[in-house]
Amino acid sequence: MKTAKAWEAAATVCDPEIPVLTIEDLGVLRDVQVAESGAAVVTITPTYSGCPAMLVMETEILGAMRSAGFDDVRVETVLSPAWTTDWLSDAGREKLRAYGIAPPVRASSSRQALFGKDSVDCPQCGSCNTERVSEFGSTACKALYRCKACAEPFDYFKCL
Ligand SMILES: [Zn+2]
């Protein structure tokens, strides 16, 4: 009961770089445990290592847990197994697209399996006629793409 409430609180925290995605959408939130004493442990697996956003995320988790009545909270970071973009939930992918960011191509995607490279669909018009403009978009976690069909630039959430 307490654990469900704690998970709910932690799951409200959003990614500081992509505010439409919660850490639950991202698959960053791995586990929430509440001991008999009320002490809570939130386990997260960071997305991109060295992402300065992780520190912000940790602070926000502590804040969200405190507002839900959990004062004794520890955030534990687990690096193995490493986070991959495949952990992103379907709801998260849809939110990314609606936000104008192309969601990462699934590692198992047939196009990638066939041709051995990413083909990124434009989040605006859905065309796959896109090109990479720069390895780095608005943040290091994203790459900048441009759609040749509608000429709109867009961010692509890089695959890991
Ligand atoms: Zn387009």
TrEMBL record:
SUPFAM superfamilies per the UniProt record, alphabetical: Fe-S cluster assembly (FSCA) domain-like
Name of a matching Pfam family: Zn_ribbon_PaaD
Superkingdom in the source lineage: Bacteria
Domain MIP18 family-like: 7-76
Residues covered by the PaaD zinc beta ribbon domain: 109-158
InterPro entries in alphabetical order: Fe-S_Maturation_MIP18, FSCA_dom_sf, MIP18-like, PaaD-like, Zn_ribbon_PaaD
NCBIfam families recorded: PA_CoA_Oxy4 (TIGR02159)
PANTHER family in alphabetical order: 1,2-PHENYLACETYL-COA EPOXIDASE, SUBUNIT D-RELATED (PTHR42831:SF3), FE-S PROTEIN MATURATION AUXILIARY FACTOR YITW (PTHR42831)
Protein name, entry field: Phenylacetate-CoA oxygenase subunit PaaJ
Annotated source species: Denitrobaculum tricleocarpae
Lineage: Bacteria, Pseudomonadati, Pseudomonadota, Alphaproteobacteria, Rhodospirillales
